[in-house]
Amino acid sequence: MNSTFVGIASVLSYAFASTLIIRELISQCEQHRNSIRMAWLGAALHCTYIILIFLQNNGFNFGFFNAAGLVALFIVLLLLFAALDKPVEKLGIAIFPLAAIMLGLAMSLPENNHSVAAHDWQMSIHILSSIIAFSLLNIAALQAILLAIQDQQLRSHHPKRLILALPPLQAMETLLFQMIGTGMFFLTASLFSGFIFIEDLFAQHLVHKTVLSIIAWIIFSSLLLGRVRYGWRGKTAIQWTLTGFVLLLLAYFGSKLVLELILKKV
Question: Which pTM was predicted?
Answer without folding.
Answer: 0.79
